[in-house]
Structures are given as C-alpha cells and as structure tokens.
Amino acid sequence: MKYAPYILLLALVAGFVACDKEADLPYNPYDDVDYLTPPAPVDTLQPNTIVWLHKNILETRCALPGCHDGNFEPDFRTVESSFATLVYHPIVKNNQDSSFVYRVVPYDTTNSVLHERITNCCFVGTNDRMPQDNIGVPLDQQYIDAIAAWIMAGAPDMMGQVRPLPNKKPSIDYYLAANSTFTVNISANSNRIDSVYYNPFIVDNSITINIIPSITDDNTSIDQLKYNKLRTSYSPDDFSTGAAGYREYNAVFTNLGGAGQYWIVTLNTADYTPGNIVYFRYYTQDDVAGPIVEMPTTNLILPYKTYFSFYVKP
To answer: Into how many domains does the chain fold?
Structure first.
C-alpha cells in the first residue's frame, strides 16, 4: 500500500489537466442552437399511394418472372420504375379504336389504360384482363378501387406530387416537295442528284414548288402551332439575313380533310441563281412561350442538310 499516495496524486493531477483542457476549448456556436423536435416521418404506406400500391399489388401480382419484371414495360420492379412507366407514359398496345394515349392520366380513370386493363375482360381479345398470371381473373375489388382512388387523386408520386402533363417540342422529321398543282412529288428519290435519297432534289428554273413539312407534337394540334416559317440559304449552316441565297417564307395552314392538315410553303425557284444548291430550314413552335424548333440543325451531319435542299438547274 506504499504506492497508494502516488496513485491518488496522479489521479488528482489528471483531473486538473482535464479541467484545464476543457477550459481552453474555443467557443462552439452550435452549443446555442435550439434543435427542434424533428417531425414525425410520413407514413408512406398509407392506402391508395403509389408506395402502397407497389407493395400490395404491383410487386406481388405484376412484377412476376416473365411479366412486368423488367422484361417489358410497365416495369413494376420498384416504386420509382412503376411511377415512371405509368404516369403520362405513352402506351404500346392499344385497343381497336385507339382510344388511349397514356397508361395513367392523373384525375382520369376513363382515359387511363391501366384502369381499363384491370377492369375490362376483353381489351383486345377475349380474357385479356390484367394481371395475366391468372388470365381473365380480376384483382380483388378492393385493389381495383385502390388503383382507381390513386388515379383520381392525381396519381401522385412518392412525395405526393402530381406530375404535370409533359410537353415535348414539335418534331419535324421529313417533308414532301410537290409541283404547283400538287400532282408530282419532285422530292422523290428518283429526282435527286445521282438518285441518292439524301442528295438535293432537282428543280427547273422559274417554277413554283410547294414544300410540305411533316410536323408532329404530343399536345398541340397542328393548326395551333404558333410559328411556321421556312428560310433558305446557299450555305448549309448560315441562315442569317445577310447570307447568300437568304429568303424567308411564311407557311400557310391547309386543311385537306381526309388527306390531313399541313403547313405549306410556296416559293418560286426564279428567286435563286441557277446552278446553286439551295438549303432550307423549317421553323415551328408549339407554344407562344416555348422554344422555336428548327430542322435541320447546324450540329447534324451533312446528309441531313442536303436532304433538306434542292438544286436549281442552269
């Protein structure tokens, strides 16, 4: 026990040193923060939500091997993939009347093909109601009602947000060039330089031609497009007002009834020097505040630009 006083002395010294160190610590501003009690977590498994539907229906009845397990859409493997491939997602298989556009339309069970597939025994053929692991055997009514309730609540995502209607930019894929009476397709492959489909089509000097672009849009009807112009140039990339061969034409909307609705540009080749290739671009807009779309764009490879061009014969 002769070492006991020394042990006690060492313990006292250690205590004083510890106190001195704490006293020397700098001020910590976070000590003054009043940390509020965190809110209770949201019950993500409340009925009629996409999380609840996935856990109780989509994962157990639909994401089965060989079905909606990633082999084909909709993809019901996860909550995220389920939502992404359902709400405002274009359908692949439609009925005979092509009645549907999207798999799920928020607030609208009538136009949601998901609801149609789980309630209609004969969407395309007999006994093709979903789920098809038991062909023709419907889901329990409580599950059908849950899906309907989710859709009618806006088909919200995992955070309770309702997805807005998507608005893609208009697409200009190709065009048709016709003579003044619309009786001859002068943009046909056989009327292009060397009969190559992406080369300029050939026109005589001082004739009227009609250029008819093919325009599609996901939400805006063709007649409601806000901006429709065609510009020409001798350069495939310069369509500024000072460019050689620059012209700008306003397209005119024409309703041909059963033949369709089109924007048509009429021009005369007398405006261009014979022997030149005249490149053209078409511009359109689906909303007054949306971006103006052009085709072809500068970043495309040359064959796209020569496809959208004509050669004026000397």
So the answer is: 2
d(CA 134, CA 139): 10
Exposure pattern of 265-281 as b/e (b: 16+ CB <10 Å)? bebebeebeeebbbbbb
End-to-end CA separation in angstroms for the chain:
122
Other CB atoms closer than 10 Å to residue 131's CB: what's the count? 19
CATH number of the domain at 281, please: 2.60.40
The pTM score is 0.62
Contacts of 286 (CB under 8 A, 6+ apart): 167, 169, 170, 217, 219, 220, 224, 225, 226, 293
pLDDT digits (tens, 9 = 90+) for 52-99: 999 999 998 888 787 887 777 899 999 999 999 999 998 888 888 888
Q: Give Rg (Cα) of the chain.
A: 34
* C-alpha dihedral (145, 146, 147, 148), degrees to nearest 10: 50
Whether 175 and 304 map to the same domain: the answer is yes
Domain range enclosing 79: 50-152
Name residue 223's amino acid. Answer: D
| Overall residue count recorded for the chain in this entry | 314
Q: Are residues 238 and 136 in the same domain?
A: no
User: Which residue, among 269, 224, 219, has the nearest Cα to 101 in the 3D structure?
Assistant: 219
Residue 10 is predicted with a pLDDT of 37
Residues whose CB falls within 8 Å of the CB of residue 106, separated by 6 or more in sequence, listed in order: 87, 88, 151, 154, 155, 162, 163
- pLDDT for res 1: 44
Residue 45's pLDDT is: 66
- Assess whether 239 and 184 both reside in one domain: yes
Strands 309-312 and 201-203: parallel
The list of the chain residues with pLDDT below 70 reads: 1-24, 29-30, 33-45, 132-136
d(C-alpha 233, C-alpha 239), whole Å:
6
pLDDT value, residue 205? 96
d(CA 120, CA 126): 10
